[in-house]
């Protein structure tokens, strides 16, 4: 954990120092590089388990198989298979494979986050993702969804600027890596309809009510039955007895709901008290509320956290973006408090072991 705490101190000095020299472009660049190196090293040092073992086996098989037979094995998520096959033609080394995959995810963040805030706030937002309790699960285990969900911040930027063609292309790319990215399509509809935050608050409240009363399962099974296609197939698969047994029957998780609602309340509070005139934060809160509603409505399926992940992946932005709009002592106090909160979540969710592989 020593590297993590040193980075925390460094980011704190960078963000809270009254001297502009600490936030200069060269200093910001060096700090960003340090956070990046740490994130990559943590990913590489975490022991290989779970889905990653299966991906590495597939990697070895792909090195000896032409592309077309590999693609013939599946109907969906072909983008990931092509990505994996291309790496396999060069090497089947597990460290290189994991490093390249994680680097693609991190580069998406490095490219996208400066489009949301001035460059000197980039280390603060990256620190938020470094401290996100599910982050290294996405980079070492759930890598198909990890690649897809890392496209979400860029989709928010495109849609904020009403770049619908780019948004559709990005959505298509995300779907080629993980079908759960279909929930991101709702953001395009949301942006076109320009639904209000109040409406989405009501939608979330209704979704939570349906979840708590058990109505959500009947409602959503009817909806996906009408839609049909891969969406219906996926929902049926994740409600099958096989998947319920694999997930330990952990559905309709109230702890997931509580965590999701906490961040909904956080975003709403900052929006109405401080950032009503900030277009991006308003759009961020709307997107979060929409994803939170989707999770509540589909909480009856196995591994419902895969749906919640699209909301949760926005929590580092909900936590730290408001600080980028503050000034003076207010910004100092809130930034320090938010960083302490981020560190506390590392311990609360017991993911300190991720960092302990670097140094005790």
Explain what this protein looks like in three dimensions.
The chain is mainly α and 360 residues long. It has one domain. It has helices at residues 2-16, 25-45, 51-62, 67-71, 78-88, 94-112, 122-130, 135-140, 143-149, 152-160, 164-175, 185-193, 197-213, 215-227, 229-238, 241-246, 254-273, 279-297, 305-312, 315-320, 328-348, 352-356. Helix 2 packs antiparallel against helix 6 (94-112). The chain is globular, with a radius of gyration of 20 Å. The mean pLDDT is 93. InterPro entries: EpsG-like (IPR049458). It holds the Pfam family EpsG. It comes from Alkalicoccus saliphilus. Keywords: Membrane, Transmembrane, Transmembrane helix.
Percent in strands: under 5%
How many structurally independent domains?
A: 1
Pick out the low-confidence regions. Answer: none
Which structural class is indicated by helix and strand composition? mainly alpha
Calculate the mean pLDDT score and round it.
93
Number of helices: 22
Largest sheet: none
Q: In angstroms, what separates the terminal alpha carbons?
A: 6 Å
Record field, number of beta strands = 0
**What sequence of helices (H) and strands (E) makes up the elements?**
HHHHHHHHHHHHHHHHHHHHHH
Radius of gyration: 20 Å
Query: In which range does the helix fraction lie?
Result: over 70%
Backbone shape: globular
């Amino acid at each position: 954990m020593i590297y993590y705490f040193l980075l925390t101190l460094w980011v704190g000095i960078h963000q809270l120092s009254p001297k502009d020299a600490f936030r200069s472009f060269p200093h910001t660049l060096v700090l960003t590089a340090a956070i990046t190196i740490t994130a990559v090293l943590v990913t590489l040092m975490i022991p290989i388990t779970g889905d990653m073992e299966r991906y590495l086996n597939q990697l070895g098989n792909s090195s000896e198989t032409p592309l077309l037979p590999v693609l013939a094995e599946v109907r969906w998520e072909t983008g990931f298979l092509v990505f994996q096959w291309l790496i396999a033609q060069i090497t089947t080394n597990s460290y290189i494979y994991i490093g390249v995959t994680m680097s693609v995810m991190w580069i998406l963040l490095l490219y996208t986050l400066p489009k949301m805030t001035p460059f000197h706030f980039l280390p603060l937002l990256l620190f938020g993702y470094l401290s996100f309790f599910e982050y290294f699960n996405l980079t070492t285990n759930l890598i198909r969804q990890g690649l897809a969900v890392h496209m979400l911040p860029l989709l928010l930027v495109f849609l904020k600027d009403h770049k619908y063609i780019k948004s559709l292309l990005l959505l298509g790319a995300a779907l080629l890596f993980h079908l759960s990215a279909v929930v991101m399509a709702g953001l395009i509809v949301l942006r076109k309809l320009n639904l209000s935050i109040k409406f989405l608050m009501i939608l979330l409240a209704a979704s939570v009510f349906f979840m708590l009363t058990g109505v959500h399962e009947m409602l959503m099974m009817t909806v996906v039955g009408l839609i049909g296609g891969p969406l219906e197939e996926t929902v049926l698969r994740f409600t099958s007895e096989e998947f319920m047994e694999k997930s330990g029957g952990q559905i309709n998780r109230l702890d997931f709901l509580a965590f999701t609602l906490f961040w909904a309340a956080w975003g709403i509070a900052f929006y109405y008290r401080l950032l009503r005139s900030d277009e991006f934060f308003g759009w961020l809160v709307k997107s979060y509320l929409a994803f939170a509603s989707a999770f509540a409505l589909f909480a009856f399926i196995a591994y419902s956290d895969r749906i919640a992940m699209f909301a949760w992946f926005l929590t580092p932005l909900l936590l730290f973006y408001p600080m980028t709009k503050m000034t003076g002592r207010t910004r100092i106090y809130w930034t320090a408090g938010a960083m302490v909160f981020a560190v506390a979540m590392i311990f609360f969710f017991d993911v300190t072991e991720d960092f302990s592989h670097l140094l005790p």
